[in-house]
Sequence to fold (279 residues):
Amino acid sequence: MMDVRSALDAIAADAARGDIVFPTHTEIALRVQRMLDDPDCAIDALGKLVCAEPILVTRVLAIANSVAYNPGGRAITELKSAIARLGFATLRALAAAVIVRQMKEMSKVEEHRALAAKLWEHTASVASLARVIARRVTRQNPDAAFFAGIVHEVGSFYLIARASTFPGLLTRDLELWHGEGEASVGRAVLQALEVPTHILDAMETLWSGFLAMPPSSLGDTLLLANQLSPIESPIDALAGMSRKGMDVELDVLIDDETLTSILAESAAEVASLSAALKG
Fold:
């Protein structure tokens, strides 16, 4: 019988050593992220690089035309205008989205790919909710919250990508994954992706599971979005970490009428943004 703890320790050790292989199609997205780090980055040069990755182009145009970024309904079809509408911070998040989304295709096992596809649906939902919660509840930077939501499950995507090496791993109880297992793998993958420090700090809050009341930090924003998402992480389900009943607790701790009103008013924005990410 496979030792789940040994398997998870091996996956974490490989990640900690930097032994991480990203999908071949993510090279352009990584280059876009690095170009955005240059304070002298020119939008024309950036646009040419983005054009080299069709998946990124599609996501940029889709998000730029979503209700979240285009409430007036004026459609954009030209990439340079779409980048200008979104801004560099959102473009960085979308470059990360391409990388994370491609990670779901790394496994050669059909069941694992289906699991990763469900995890991406959860990711898109959390990222969309985090942006709204940051803007309207915690008063954090919405672009940072969007980015954090997109990368918050990278450790789980990496777990799925490696699971075929340990047959049966994703059919067993994964309660050992939550806690330091997920955190150690997540930290390593996020560092390999050169994720900014403030995003890493928010992830530490997510992994700790401690939601401050009232929620105010970027980490609180991410944790609240994760708990409120109608689409649960399938890895949470495997780990016996279902959130059923948690909404009732949140209703008690938060001004429920205000939160419900905010989410209701923002429903179209969240749905549009999530659909653009998943499309």
In short: Residues 119 and 171 are 16 Å apart (CA to CA). Residues 4-278 form a domain with the Hypothetical protein af1432 fold (CATH 1.10.3210.10).
